Amino acid sequence: MEERRRPGYSVHREVLDEEAVDEIAKKSDSKSSLCSGPRLKSCLLGSVPVLSWLPRYSLRDNCLGDLISGISVGIMQLPQGMAYALLASVPAVFGLYSSFYPVLVYFIFGTSKHISLGTFAVLSVMVGGVTERLAPDSNFMIWDNVTNASEVDVVARDAERVKVAAAVTFVSGLFQILLGLVQFGFVVTYLSEPLVRGYTTGAAIHVIVSQLKYTFGIRPVRHSGPLSLIYTVLEICYLLPKTNIGSLVVSIVAIICLILVKELNAYLSKKLPVPIPVELLGIVIATVISWQVNLKDKYGVDVVGLIPSGLQPPVLPDASLFGQVIGDAFALAVVGYGIAISLGRIFALKYGYKVDSNQELIALGLSNSIGGVFQCFAISCSMSRSMVQESTGGKTQVAGALSAVVILFITLWIGTLFEDLPKAVLAAIIYVNLQGMMKQFMDIRVLWRSNKVDMLIWVATFILTLLLNPDLGLAAAIGFSMLTVIFRTQLPKYSKLGQVPDTDIYRPLEDYDELKQVPGILIFRSSATLYFANAEMYQEALGEKSGIDITKLLSAKKKLEAKRKRHEKKNAKKAAKRSAANLVRTVFLLNRKKIFKHIAIIEMDAEPDPSLPRAIILDLSPVNFLDTVAVKTLRIMWFNYQSSALFLGGVIDNLQTAGFFNDKVTKSCLFSTVHDAVLHCQSAQKHSPHEVSVHIRTQTDPSSQSSTGRFCRIIQQKIRQMC
């Protein structure tokens, strides 16, 4: 294989520190915040994106694809909206409302061209947890004089649950709007992909368990709080002997048929212009069979029931409920936004456009808050519907608006035809739609091979979601994920850098065999940022890598300083250290006066081992911020190592605002590259000759010229060795 040709380059310039860079580049402190006509227009178009793209909409290029896509997605919205309404514990028709109003609002304010907004299983089950907690069946028990037994007032219960769902949806929308206005779109960065996938998988288990009552035709007691999933499963197992055979048979047949047709869709995906609307066919066929056979009366199969035609008038949510749902609303806001923005960015990257994270927050917030006024429950985007919208040719948000028109048509004129639809069929639709989330269990094996910490986050998030329910589980999972980040910053990799021969590139010495260490210079780097949690470890690692025990060094400095002061008080002529030049002059003076008989050299401090550092360079390029503790640590290190320490700058603003610089420590100790710092150190060493001290012990006076001459020759020989 031919070797890849590498172009070369050559740069000739002076060594530049940060003071020189600021002077050459003319650093500016001014910030422009003036309002102007173009800026106001840009803000308006950014706040209402439909004004920017709809006037440029191309009927020729986009109309047909958006039309087919909108009809296809609208057909999917019908069964999914009704099924997910069961998850939210509200009547099925409110799932249709939730597939209409919010979609129209997102058409105006959203920035993603391909995501399909509407009901979503995870959010629906979270809403259902709130509605059943605040409006349980036990609060609506009435006495039936005919049967002489108590039963649930379903009408009153459902009306109260709709109020609760609308309230929590409205508050979650307000949270999203507020977060969007304060530019808090980056909050989604705390929802890593392993966390989101582990969370949605755990939430999918909650969804499946919540639908088992329709599959088996039983009525388990509602449990809430931590471990409620386990209690519910135990309750269902206890009630299995009371299974309604009719509901079970309907559910099994529906699941098998749905899976077979979906597999057929996948097999014929390249041949079919649009996928077979299996869910729509399923609910139509099931409704007809239920109506003809009379499944409700003959076999006790639970059906959807009354579906009113028309739309509901707007009603302000009950403000008295806000305080009871505020925590759930925040969880809904974060989860719904995280799922929507993640999917939106995938499509944006694929088709080359930008999704504004803050505008998406506002768009979702308006969709939920306005939807709450029209008695909808919380919405987000659905992966299955979004994939259908893309694969059938949808290119703009017009496809979403057309799907809302389809839902409007169904709600006004066709909805009442589905009153005999068995709830077991809707549960079967939910099970089949969750098979994609169940495949996410395969992530564990992939993450085990690629990143074990991410695998740990996935598993921990899944378990926490199962045990603590989706709301508390999300908070606990985010906390656990943050702990892994903190632990990883407390266990960074500390490295000594060496130079790639004949280049200005520096890499860790332990990772490469052909690197060479710069003589007399230690280049030290940490893989993590520097802050209060690891500042002390950073200082200890530097001492270990440099071979300098800073504690002993400081102790020796204090002892030498105390000794120097004592000697100065006794006799200024008896200094503790003498330079080599003064010593040689003294030797020649003694030679002329002949006052020594014998001189013996006891100790001489030679030049240090080249492997020991005479200068230390701290590579701070991986550091993205410094807190006050980190700056204080760097200041202490500078004082301890004195002129031996140099800093490679990347966090200059943090150092400056924290008061690191003064008259003695300026930006001249900061450099933009490691090589600049190395060249500076080497230049400083050349212009700063090494000092030596010679300690002698004299005995009797000399009797001959030879002893003094021999001493001079020894001194000269030692000095030549050191130099």
TrEMBL record:
It is found in: Membrane. It comes from Gasterosteus aculeatus aculeatus. It is a multi-pass membrane protein. Residues 511-634 form the STAS domain. The chain crosses the membrane at residues 84-109, 115-135, 164-191, 244-261, 273-293, 329-349, 361-380, 400-418, 462-487. Residues 550-577 form a coiled coil. One of its GO terms (cellular component) is membrane. NCBIfam families: sulP. Keywords: Coiled coil, Membrane, Transmembrane, Transmembrane helix. The keyword Zinc does not apply. It comes from the Eukaryota. Pfam families: STAS, Sulfate_transp. One of its GO terms (molecular function) is secondary active sulfate transmembrane transporter activity. This is STAS domain-containing protein. PROSITE patterns: SLC26A (PS01130), STAS (PS50801).
